[in-house]
Structures are given as structure tokens and as C-alpha cells.
Amino acid sequence: MALTQKQSDEKARFAKLGIFLIDEVLIYKSLLPFKNEADDFETNYLKFDDLAEGKIIDTSGETEEKTANKLSIAESCALYCGTTRAFAKKIGNLDLAAQMWYSKSDILDMKDTEVLGFVNNLVKTITPLLADIVFKTYGITALQLSDLGTLAITFNGEIGHAGMVIHGATVSNRNLNDVIKLLQGNIEMMSLLLPNFQKLQPDFVAGFNLNSKTIDLGVHHGGVMGKITLETTGAALSDIKVEIVGTLKNDISDVLGEYAIIKVSPCTAIVQASGDGVVLQQKVHTFHRGKIEQLDFVMVAIKE
């Protein structure tokens, strides 16, 4: 069974948050309710991963060469993503690190028609880093990226030779979706407890918020992310609703004043921010394919 797009997106989100929590366990272990929720999250993710790996794929008609090419692409992408993530963490670029949460299984789980777009965006993201003196020491070269792009083009040309049959999709999807709900519940509970760390561990709070959001390389869509602050003091504003007018796309700013709205098709739309005690603010924004762009709001307090 192939994962649906939503299941695949959630899998990527759960994976990156899970690794973040493992890395930061020394910070949150003192707050037992948070630690218990994090442990439960890990257990539920292992269940989800087992169910995802248990999908049944009928590869009748698929050439051995095509299978081998996709595997090679997945291995190379996973290597370059992991290496670039290590570099990003080293220099403190959390946004870049968040974009690099892709494993071999994540690429193998992609629809064949999505692979070329993903590879093109990955190459486009990494290429500017090649000029960085520090990044050069991590071993990724222009030739390697070129070879990866060429292989992806070859693989794309082979699409259509394979047939995929889903066995027991109803039961399998129900099981996967049930575990997804459990994991989403774990994230919600941890988010409620997160303010306990704001004063002494603001970096942990920022990292959790970043890694718990669904952020990818934007193969099909774009989006915006930014910060909401008060004009007079510059203080971060939480509980501000940011929405794309005329759609259901929205997000609520967190304790750091940060929000993110992603997976928006290319268009020009009005993005507005509103909340208690502040004047509604609207901005016209053009959403571009494959780009998550910065869009901040500086709010004016309502005079009493």
C-alpha cells in the first residue's frame, strides 16, 4: 500500500520531531508529564513506521533497472539531506535543517511522479552552499549533484512501466490513520506543556515549534512563515490568527509569535492577521511554487 500524500507529510513531520526530542531529552526530562508524552510519542511513531513499512506493492511490469534507479536516488538524497542537515545545525540555520528531514524510506515512499521535482528542489537548495568554505569540508560536490539530477531525469522517463495494486487498503489506512491521531494528540499535549520551558529554555521552545510543523522542500506548493510582534514594544504576540482570505488556510501564532502556512498553490492573495486587542492587518502576498517566504506582521494595539 502506498502512503497517501497526507500520511507521507505527517510521517516526515513525526520523524523530524522524534529526532529533535531524542536530542533534547536532557532539557525536558525534569518535567515528567512532558517526558511521558514524549516517550508515548516515540512508541506511537514506531507503530506508525512499522505499518508504513508493511505496505504491499505489486511491482508487476516494473523493470529491475527502474527499481534500482529509485533506490539509488533515495540513498543519494538521504545522504545529501543528512549531510546538509549536519552542516545547518553546526552553523545554527534551523530553517535549512528543517528542510533536510528526509530519509531513504521517505523518498521511496514518494509517488514516482514526485521524485524528479523533489530532486530538482534539493539540488537547487544545496547548490548555493557549494561555495561556502565550511560546507566544502562536508564532501558534497557539484558533480555528485549533477549525477543525481541526471539519474532523476532517467528515472522520470521510466515511469509508466509499473503497475501498483493496493491490497487491503481500507484496513491498512484505518490503522495508519488511527496511529496518526495518537501522534497528533501527543504533539498537542506537549505543545500545551511547552510554555513551562519558555523562560529558561527559549531555544528548546523555538526548536520544538519549528520541528513540529509540517515543512518540506515545497515540491508542489509554496507558503509563508513569520513572526507577529507588537509595534510599541516589539514583544512577540501569541494567539494571533493568520489566514489567507477566501481559503481555509490559517495558523495561530505560538508563544514566540511565530506562525507558518504552507502548501499553498501559486497565486496572489490577501494574508491577514487578527486577534484580541490589535487592529486587523492585511498584506497582499504572491505565493511562488517551491518557496516558503518570510512574511512578518507588526501589530498596532487597539486604543481604548
Explain this structure.
The chain is of the alpha/beta class. 51% of the residues lie in helices and 14% in strands. The strands form two sheets. Strands 1, 4, 7 and 8 form a four-stranded mixed β-sheet that branches. α4 (64-91) runs parallel beside α7. The chain is globular, with a radius of gyration of 21 Å.
Features:
single chain; 304 residues; alpha/beta; Immunoglobulin-like; 4-stranded mixed beta sheet; 4-stranded antiparallel beta sheet; 11 helices; 8 strands; 14% strand; globular
Give a brief outline of the structure.
With 304 residues, the protein is α/β, with parallel strands linked by helices. The chain has eleven helices and eight strands. It is globular.
According to DSSP, the number of beta strands is: 8
- Radius of gyration (CA) equals 21 Å
Number of helices: 11
What's the story with the biggest beta sheet?
Answer: 4 strands, mixed
| Averaged pLDDT | 82
Assembly status: single chain
**Gross geometry:** globular
User: Percent range for helical residues?
Assistant: 40-55%
Intertermini distance: 58 Å
Element order: H for helix, E for strand: HHHHHHHHHHHEEEEEEEE
The amount of beta strand, in percent, is 5-15%
Tell me the structural class. alpha/beta
Contiguous runs where pLDDT drops below 50 for at least 5 residues: 55-62, 161-170
Tally of individual domains: 2
